[in-house]
Amino acid sequence: MADNAVVLVSLDGFRADYINRPGAVHLRALAARGVRAERMIPAFPTKTFPNHYTIVTGLYPEHHGIIANVMQDSVIGKTFTIADTAVSHDPRWWGGEPLWNTVERQGKKAASFFWVGSDIRINNRTPTWYRVYDGRIPNATRVQQVLDWLSMPAGTGPVFVSTYFNDTDDAGHHFGPLAPQTDSAIARVDSMIGALVDGLAARGLTNKVNVVVVSDHGMAQLAPDRVIYLDDYLDLSRVRVVDLSPAGALIPNADYAVDAYARLKGAHPHLQVYRKGELPARLHFNTHPRITPLVTIVDEGWTLTTHAIAARVGAPRGGNHGFDNAAPSMGALFVAAGPQFRQGVVVPPFQNIHVYDLLARLLGVTPAPNDGSPDSTAALLRPAR
Predict the structure, then answer these.
(1) Strands 247-252 and 294-298
(2) Which helix (H) or strand (E) holds 151?
(3) pLDDT of the chain along its 385 residues, tens only?
(4) What's the CA gap between 320 and 322, in Å, rounded?
(5) Residue-range domain boundaries for the chain
(6) Neighbours of 237 (CB within 10 A)
(7) What is residue 228's DSSP assignment?
(8) H or E, element range at 48
(9) CA-to-CA distance for 289 and 86, rounded, in angstroms?
(10) 5-219+326-380 has which CATH code?
(11) Nearest CA to 146 among 68, 243, 212?
(12) Residues 352/55, Cβ–Cβ less than 8 Å
């Protein structure tokens, strides 16, 4: 393999402060010999698909098009959901250039054992090696394949490898961020970081591979008494609800658009409503055609639902994400170590749009146009020799 390869690992839903939990021993050790951010600021909405794709493109969701886990497109004429791969694997949803394409386009090779978008032919490319997502595949199998890829003879294997673990997101949703089950999930994914680091050391690759561990978003605790019912304020027969909570996507009938906005504006102290194009500029969520005419955002820890949904699924418990990206509980993880990173450095929060430029720099490839800046992560790196 080439010197200075990069392994990018995602721990879904791993809140920034989870690194201080008892089970995160290997992550703390990695940070001690490398760098970490106090937290990484996710893109809005703080959801899985938008943020995984932002990390590998350097683009805000309004620029790459994966604006939510659930969205509609009037040209494609379909509804995108995570579960419906027949729709979501249509390349027309996916804008920008993901890092594996940047790498491959410049004559190097990439591999992915799961990353959002890596099993889709975006711009008619995929990584040389990739796996179609199957959550049943054990985490240890993923780590072993990453190590096998990095052990290929020089010039034949990938210089960029990505992989993904979802344990902490699952536990956070079901039990909440402070639950003992979430602590167990933290320990499980942390053990995989330990296995990766130990595997690199056993192969003599510690000083040849930069390990970058990130998460897509954090997790907030829900409460059964922090609920807002959309149908207390709107006639839902006159509104198409594309997505609901914490970031709602609403398409009111043309003759109801003005009234719907007026009914939601100021309706509840923990609910904000915006017309498309009027969201705060800091959210970078105004321009894409898939953004709906009305966008609602509930405050951290609140749930927007309907009486019908509540009757079916019960009161909200556990955790959720998707809230304003300024909420501390939405803060994501960034930890990295390797030959190009400084040692024992903790940097202030930075946005995840900057990761793509950072990884391109580590890999010696020219980044595609993006929203990030290499200056924003320069403090993480050793001076060039």
Answers:
(1) antiparallel
(2) none
(3) 446 899 999 999 999 999 999 999 999 999 999 999 999 999 999 999 999 999 999 999 999 999 999 999 999 999 999 999 999 999 999 999 999 999 999 999 999 999 999 999 999 999 999 999 999 999 999 999 999 999 999 899 999 999 999 999 999 999 999 999 999 999 999 999 999 999 999 999 999 999 999 999 999 999 999 999 999 999 999 999 999 999 999 999 999 999 999 999 999 999 999 999 999 999 999 999 999 999 999 999 999 999 999 999 999 999 999 999 999 999 999 999 999 999 999 999 999 999 999 999 999 999 999 999 999 999 999 997 6
(4) 7
(5) 5-219+326-380, 227-316
(6) 8
(7) E
(8) helix 48-57
(9) 22
(10) 3.40.720.10
(11) 212
(12) yes
Helix (H, G, I), strand (E, B) or coil at 129: strand
**How far are the Cα atoms of 167, 168, 171, 313 from residue 11, in angstroms, in the given order?**
8, 7, 12, 27
Given strand 294-298, what is the order of strands in its sheet? Answer: 239-243, 247-252, 294-298, 271-275
Question: How would you classify the pairing of strands 271-275 and 160-165?
Answer: unpaired
The owner of tokens 């680091």 is 197
Other beta carbons less than 10 A from residue 302's beta carbon: 22
Active site residues: 48
49: enclosing H helix or E strand = helix 48-57
Terminal Cα distance for the chain, rounded: 21
227-316 is classed CATH 3.40.50.2300 = no
Give the alpha-carbon dihedral of 115, 74, 277, 257, to 10 degrees: -130
